[in-house]
Amino acid sequence: MNDHSATQDSPCSLESLDTPCLILDQERMERNIARLRDRLQEAGVAFRPHLKTAKSWEVSRRLMGSPHGPATVSTLREAEELAAHGVTDITYAVGISPDKLERVQRLRGQGVTLTILLDSVEQALAVARVSDPADPIPVLIELDCDGHRSGVKPQDAPLLKAIARVLSPRARLSGVLTHAGESYEARGNAALTAAAEQERAAAALAAMTLRGDGWPCPMVSVGSTPTAFSASHYDGVTEVRAGVFVFFDLVQAGIGVCTTDDIALSVLTTVIGHQREKGWTIVDAGWTALSCDRGTATQAVDQGYGLVCDLAGRPVGDLVVTIVNQEHGIVAARPGGPRLDHEFPVGTRLRILPSHACATATQHDRYHVIGAGQNKVTAVWPRFTGW
Amino acid sequence: MNDHSATQDSPCSLESLDTPCLILDQERMERNIARLRDRLQEAGVAFRPHLKTAKSWEVSRRLMGSPHGPATVSTLREAEELAAHGVTDITYAVGISPDKLERVQRLRGQGVTLTILLDSVEQALAVARVSDPADPIPVLIELDCDGHRSGVKPQDAPLLKAIARVLSPRARLSGVLTHAGESYEARGNAALTAAAEQERAAAALAAMTLRGDGWPCPMVSVGSTPTAFSASHYDGVTEVRAGVFVFFDLVQAGIGVCTTDDIALSVLTTVIGHQREKGWTIVDAGWTALSCDRGTATQAVDQGYGLVCDLAGRPVGDLVVTIVNQEHGIVAARPGGPRLDHEFPVGTRLRILPSHACATATQHDRYHVIGAGQNKVTAVWPRFTGW
């Protein structure tokens, strides 16, 4: 049975699905969610999951603390999809451009508390211009805690205060937000804990500066998967965001915040040929199915475009996807690793653990959900895409 | 107007589209198509366009010589979409796995001449097993002309003949096919011409070997964009395939088969911030909009994740996208190039020429079509995705 339009009504198995396709191990996912939720609950800090990795209502509702949120998104399209499902507390965690404010206001008109992000006076002016003082747009100031990307330097008190003053009273300053993107480069527990402390301290400092100037700053938001699992305390922080942890991936395993046994996402693929003298097995998962992400290239163990597992999800020797073309993946021993002489005949099914779960998931329009070590697809969950 | 559900009925301009989104310059595309079509017509060889780059009916019908084909595809999903539009002559140019034969037969049952590809006796056995001698499945033997990927070595006469014998009489050997994938690494005209000659000679040799053994081999198919524009003759070849030339991209410009003025595809993006001390402009096109493809990294000019143009499509200094996160692109001077001190205010719209058009297009579900140098969207053409 090659049912390429599988739905919840037509369950099938990993042997019968059309390949390539995306497999989600629900037990691993739920274990990952429980792990972070328990950790943050113990630390007494709120959790605002980032839904950009999953882009699925079924995954989102398992991630959020309630059917109404809180949630973090990276596109207005995600916010619109969540709003359609009744989510009312959403932070859009990418710097706002003025042309997007019409969609922001449309969502707010539907009863969504949609908090936006900015890091400049010019953006604040644009927001204040369209905001209605009777219903002020909630705004977070983005902080640059580690030189990774956008944001005001947390010690730049004049700029923080200038933005706050421009926003008031037409818009509402809700607080500050930062993301320790450079924590992806941290190696070892001490470096991870330091990255988390740098992120926390940046947010706490900026909030203190703003409060000293008379702005209450009820939200102090930090987060990244590596720091969420590494912070020693959350003093001055009100909420933590994290996204990729829901599935984990080889980059996170390389950082050390999970093992390959925690990775809930994989790409199911079929062997379509060999080049035996090179030790190559050729599969039908290329970059359209895996993405071109090479996030482990700079880590201690280079996992290529993905780690090769058998149908039960167990890694097979040191086999990785070493080369990807559009619809071809070349499976071979990890460079420097022992060559595996076992041969997979044409038609053999394999599963590839992703380098970067967000990037791999983006290439697909649905999840085929299975239980841990199980073979049966228990559900098909659609993904949303676009902006 | 931020109409994010733009259709042909609601034309809008590059200033009003929601960003990021994909822009297609129809005049450039049609010039690219005419250039290759004229070249092949003059050489007296048939053209079987590869539709994997476009994945759009509107583009496909402009690429094909007739509404019925011929066409090349990289997934059965593409074949099914084209068949639904009346295309009846399709080559599925990725090695077949036995589990896909049911879908192949379903398409053939709809009147499509769907020719499949293989490079082993085991695949030939699987095809012969399901093929009906009264309606034999047409098959091409894939050749490895340059060590790039799959295929039988063209000089491996015993294997070529063994495959032919296994296929007969239940399936039908239609000929041979090869793709000079390594031509992407060729630099300079002499190297490109040599790659094309190697591709041609491989196909011609294998066809001659098979004909000498009594197999007619009516199809002798070669192709890649670099070789399609570089071959000095096509002796022994019956058809040429090429795909990415329809849009071209920075990789092809780096190889030298086009200039940046020929690139028909771009991603429209909006400036969302700055890190001025680093010379960074931050835009809302990350890897979800551009892809993570870094195909120019090994070329003489590294174009990062894309070359930055103004709204009219003209490159702006030596600005490239140097870093991509999920929804952020960091625009800066090309490493080693002069820093550009001109500043684009928040809200400025830019267009990014893609590193690899196939990969960038895959990230989007539609093309916003414009005329050369024009600002108005004249049509919205949907793309199909999946397998």
List keywords for this structure.
homodimer; 387 residues; alpha/beta; six-stranded antiparallel beta barrel; disordered N terminus
Please, could you describe this protein's structure?
2 copies of one chain form a homodimer. Chain A has helices at residues 26-43, 57-63, 76-84, 101-109, 121-130, 157-167, 189-212, 225-228, 250-255, 287-290, 357-362; strands at 21-25, 46-47, 71-73, 89-95, 113-118, 138-143, 172-178, 219-222, 239-240, 265-275, 280-283, 307-309, 315-324, 329-333, 349-353, 366-370, 379-382. In chain A, strands 2-9-8-7-6-5-4-3 form an 8-stranded parallel β-sheet. In chain A, strands 10-11-14-13-12-15 form a 6-stranded antiparallel beta barrel. Chain A is elongated and about 70 Å long. The two termini of chain A are 35 Å apart. Chain A has 387 residues and is an alpha/beta fold. Chains A and B meet through helix 5, strand 10, helix 10 and helix 11 of A and helix 5, strand 10, helix 10 and helix 11 of B.
